Amino acid sequence: MRKSYSLDAEALPQDGLAVAERAWKSLSISGRVGLVLVIFWLFIAVFGAFLSPYSPSAFVADDVFLPMSATHWLGSDYLGRDTLSRVLSGTRYTVGLAFFGALLASATGTFLALYAAVSQGVLDEVISRLMDTLISIPSKIFALVLVAVFGASLPLLLLTAAIIYLPGSYRIARALAVNLNSMDYVEVARVRGERKLYIVFHEILPNMLNPMMADFGLRFVFVVLLLSGMSFLGLGVQPPAADLGSLVRENMSGLQDIAPAILAPAIAIATLTIGVNLLIDALPQSGNGKGGH
Amino acid sequence: MAVTVNVSHLKVAARGEGGMPIPIIRDVSFSIKKGEVLALIGESGSGKSTIALSLMGYTRPGLEVVGGRIQVGDQDVLALKSDELRALRGKTVAYVAQSAAASFNPVVRIMDQVIETAVTTQMCTRAVAEAKAIGLFKSLALPNPETLGHRYPHEVSGGQLQRLMAAMALMADPALVIFDEPTTALDVTTQIEVLRAFKAAVKERGVTAVYVSHDLAVVAQIADQIVVLQHGEVREAGQRDQILHEPDADYTQSLMQAAQPEKRVRPSPAKALGTMAPILQIKGMKAGYGKARDGSLQKTVLDNIDLTIEPGRALGIIGESGSGKSTLARVIAGMLPPAAGQVCFHGEVLPPSLRARSRDQLRRIQIVFQNADTAINPAQTVGEVLARPLQFYYGLKGQALTKRVNELLDLIRMPSSSADRLCRKMSGGQKQRVNLARALAAKPDLILCDEVTSALDSVVAAAILDLMAELRHELNLTYVFISHDISAVRAVCDDIMVLYAGTQVEAGQSQAFKSAPYHPYTDLLISSVPQLRRGWLEEARPGSSGAQAQPEDGLCRFLPRCSLKIPGLCDTMPAPRHALSDGRNILCHLDEPSLRAAQLETV
């Protein structure tokens, strides 16, 4: 039996700062690096527009592919626009689309999985086979087809990302939920006469939140890479707006000059995805919070 | 080669939050002479396993040795480097873990696993190692020692696997063997065989051993010296007989008391039998799992069960694992519809499945599961757990709800401040109390307790049993108490039913279970419970245990293990159910005088 010697944690002051400090201390070094990177990019995504020195679509520089300077911190792009301003606004597209796309995929997947796991039988079978069908379609091709048919628009990109990453999320959530569904406390709730929805939201879901959060982080990274890839092919966010992937693409010709215009968005994508990955790896993986020891 | 083990001022600490070390073992010292068996005894969390593992120079992740010396023979274990430690482990010090089933690789043949260390360290050739392993199988009294090694771990029983693990440990002729609760997970009838085999093997080879256990009665059989631990400190240490007969420390005395539930005050027996309408009545019930094409059961777990409980009484159901005890509770609770027979509750027939039962019918029967760790949602607070049945069955809200939750906490002797605490931060005993309180919250007529004390330490379990007995009088509850522990059942129950392989072999009032004659199986169960005196292990009757070929349908299920069977009768005719003079009924061919004669002569 596990001796709970972490009991004395209860006695510590419970104000927000102390909680944050303890969470920080419990993270490994790589986890801390990840956390800093994630907070940095979230901050840029939310407040970037206010910090932007120029309008992202204004032609403000004297020349194209300028190096870093005091007036243009990250130089200028292939049309003479300010790279820093473009990256700041591109981050909002990339992070925003990826966040909501992954959220949609995870939330829908988790809910379907919970419903399937609790219902069992035919319903479980039908939902699971539907998801298997979705998994069997190559994701990049599927995205390309959708964009080719309906044209690239923000809602469509969001939906595409959500549909592509839904089955993976469903699979993980269902595996967790099936295990939790056989726990004695779920059995107790069932013997009490509880309805399915109560069991789903009160007994099962709280115990799988941690792993699902980790899964959400992973999906977020996948969506960032998918959207960046799509944009790089010119099928993602359409000009004059640009996400980080489009920024890399449109400044391709600056590659020979090693212009900051192409380096900056590429580094942005790299640090964002690595940051999220590092943070997820450092999180306790166990669903019931016992993994801390 | 036997060695002296010397542990002095051992200190082990866990890395706490914020880097503060939390002491786990505080200054423990003991020494073991050559060929002696030392027992480390204590509750879970007392640090007994941590000490045992540190003898191999190992600490669990998150723990570290912060002081002291461990001397095994002429080696200072704590000063060894990792490659020297590897040489020490397995060769000089060997380890037998609690769960052999989890320690064997299921896809490798037993022989390959037993001789693996010897062969990979090139101590001897394969042929020599195999011959030695077979010798060990023989001395551990394993069946078919020549061919046993060709089997896979899932093909042998739990008790055999535990002995195979000891064989694996003894392969390298270690100087010190550590047994870490090796019989805790076994049935009493199996435990007795495993203990015998261990004791013989240890004596024969003259190895020094450390035996970790929470069970004083088991330790009394095997140890020369006993060290009693609590909270990482030595409470008492000394020779076995001194600890058993003149325990000094209060803590040791409370351990002794908890080990003998029958010596505690029995609840006064409830009203006389037959005066009230039964609360629960089951007749000719059959249940199992899996439906074959023709509608019959693929696996019958319970067959032809009759039981009657009157209000205010406690019925104990005992049997080994796999006897169908828990399935019976599941059928009563409606979780498993029976294949035949009905469950009558307060005179009316209950619908077989959960869905068909009304909310009030569900409320009146509450089930308490064995393992509070899994029976209580770790993500909820104690208050939330207790409040839910109140909201669900009674629609309580606000002040009334808080008041009732506090009343319930008071009933289970916990402070009202604990309502805000998360269940996963509670200790095992506290969780089990909450588990019980959740059932009480529904104000049920009948509580089904499924092995509620078997996952707990003896002292905590005794407290839970006392609490249940008190509550029964305060609230006039009716219990069905399922257990494998016949002494616990005799201590708290008015009526007892013994299940063997899904059949009801004996039933009657608890008082009648105090003396022979018994059904041969009940007799085996009772005589297998370790007693707190030395020499018990040698005197106890050998009983065959474990899974064996099932007899044909209709015949006595206990036949292959029965020591009193009558050839020509028991193996041809189904056993009749007949009454004994004290009101019990048993399912056996033997009549009362012959059972008494057979059982009294050996006691």
UniProtKB/TrEMBL annotation, chain A:
Give the residue spans that cross the bilayer.
33-51, 95-118, 141-166, 216-238, 258-280
Q: Which InterPro entries match?
A: BP-dependent_transpt_permease, MetI-like, MetI-like_sf
Q: One GO CC annotation, please?
A: DNA-directed RNA polymerase complex
Membrane topology, as annotated, equals: Multi-pass membrane protein
Start and end residues of each ABC transmembrane type-1 domain? 91-280
Keywords (alphabetical) are:
Cell membrane, DNA-directed RNA polymerase, Membrane, Transcription, Transmembrane, Transmembrane helix, Transport
- SUPFAM superfamilies the UniProt entry points to: MetI-like
One Gene Ontology term from the biological process aspect of the record: transmembrane transport
Major localization listed first in the record, in broad terms: membrane
Is this entry keyworded Transmembrane? yes
Q: Which family does it belong to?
A: Belongs to the binding-protein-dependent transport system permease family.
- PANTHER family of this UniProt entry? OLIGOPEPTIDE TRANSPORT SYSTEM PERMEASE PROTEIN APPC, PEPTIDE ABC TRANSPORTER PERMEASE PROTEIN
Protein name in UniProt:
DNA-directed RNA polymerase subunit alpha
UniProtKB/TrEMBL annotation, chain B:
Q: Set out the biological process GO terms recorded for this chain's protein.
A: peptide transport; transmembrane transport
Its subcellular locations are: Cell inner membrane
Provide any one GO MF term from the record: ATP binding
Output the Pfam families linked to this UniProt entry: ABC_tran, oligo_HPY
* Keyword Nucleotide-binding included in the entry's annotation: yes
- Domain (ABC transporter) ranges: 5-256, 280-526
GO-annotated cellular components: plasma membrane
Q: Does the keyword ATP-binding apply?
A: yes
The record's annotation in NCBIfam families points to: oligo_HPY (TIGR01727)
| Protein family (similarity comment) | Belongs to the ABC transporter superfamily.
**Name recorded for this polypeptide:** Peptide ABC transporter ATP-binding protein
Q: Which organism is it from?
A: Asticcacaulis endophyticus
